[in-house]
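Worked example 3 (structure in, sequence out).
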């Protein structure tokens, strides 16, 4: 099969080449990949650290080529959205059926490919906060892929949504169109306390966001874009901060989540129906992978980048 192989001797660190076809385990389906969406983490750290010749990639959408031998998962010919720790940047992919969601017939598989990491991370982070109907939710790093899904999903869930982005002038109108009630440049600018935070930035912004939590509030630490340490001032964890106690910070790891297949299916249906906008900012054939990686790593991409597997 053809695949994007790690080759750090070429621009972008990837080249199109030949790789062995994957051999599915009994609980895996073989997927003919039609599109893959890129995530900052896999691009920034995966390509740099993976062995030469590796086939990386977390998100992919396509069609079932061979159903799982154990009878689980969708049938041959079903359009699907898939998540895995590697293997998405190839024509064929073997995936655990627990990480396969079905997509509606005729759906744009490029749009559907944005769902796994960005959509599922946002959905599970909001679930971790708890019921959000009528509550205030802050999303930091809101102009990124996960952030944009989190804003939309929080609004669908009935929350009052505060979006934090480094450039409100550039992204404010778009975030409001996606459902944000307020747009701020940093968590410290938030007025009233919030009941939950989906944090994509970490570092100083995580510290600021925690200080805005209301009594019983939860901050879910999903992303770490800042690349800096979190240093809390003395007293930040005292039991009574103007009545805002019993607050928590929880870590997040999507791959450890169970029961993702129904989530992926639900998200794919919402994207196909137009209830969720995948916010694709860059799209092209996988022969243009170096261009896509350069745009993503240069922080010039706000939203998702999609490679069509042709």
């Amino acid at each position: 099969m053809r695949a994007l192989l790690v080759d750090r001797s070429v621009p972008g660190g990837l080249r199109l080449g030949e790789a062995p076809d994957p051999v599915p385990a009994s609980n895996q389906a073989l997927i003919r990949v039609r599109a893959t969406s890129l995530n900052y983490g896999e691009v920034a750290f995966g390509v740099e650290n993976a062995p030469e010749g590796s086939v990386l990639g977390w998100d992919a959408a396509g069609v079932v080529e061979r159903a799982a031998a154990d009878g689980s998962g969708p049938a041959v010919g079903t359009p699907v959205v898939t998540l895995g720790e590697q293997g998405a940047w190839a024509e064929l992919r073997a995936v655990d059926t627990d990480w396969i969601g079905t997509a509606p017939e005729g759906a744009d598989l490029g749009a559907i490919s944005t769902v796994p990491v960005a959509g599922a991370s946002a959905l599970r982070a909001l679930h971790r906060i708890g019921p959000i109907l009528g509550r205030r939710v802050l999303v930091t790093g809101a102009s990124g892929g996960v952030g944009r899904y989190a804003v939309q999903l929080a609004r669908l869930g009935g929350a009052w949504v505060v979006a934090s982005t480094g450039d409100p002038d550039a992204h404010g109108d778009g975030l409001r169109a996606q459902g944000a009630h307020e747009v701020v440049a940093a968590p410290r600018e938030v007025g009233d306390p919030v009941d939950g935070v989906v944090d994509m930035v970490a570092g100083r912004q995580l510290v600021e966001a925690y200080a805005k939590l209301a009594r019983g509030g939860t901050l879910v630490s999903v992303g770490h874009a800042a690349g800096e340490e979190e240093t809390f001032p003395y007293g930040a964890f005292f039991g009574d901060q103007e009545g805002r106690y019993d607050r928590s910070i929880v870590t997040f790891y999507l791959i450890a989540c169970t029961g993702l297949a129904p989530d992926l299916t639900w998200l794919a249906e919402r994207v196909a129906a137009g209830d969720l906008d995948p916010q694709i900012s860059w799209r092209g054939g996988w022969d243009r992978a170096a261009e896509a990686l350069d745009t993503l790593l240069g922080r010039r991409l706000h939203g998702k980048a999609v490679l069509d597997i042709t």
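Notes: Residues 250 and 260 are 19 Å apart (CA to CA). The helical segments are 40-49, 109-112, 115-129, 145-156, 168-178, 203-211, 260-273, 289-297.
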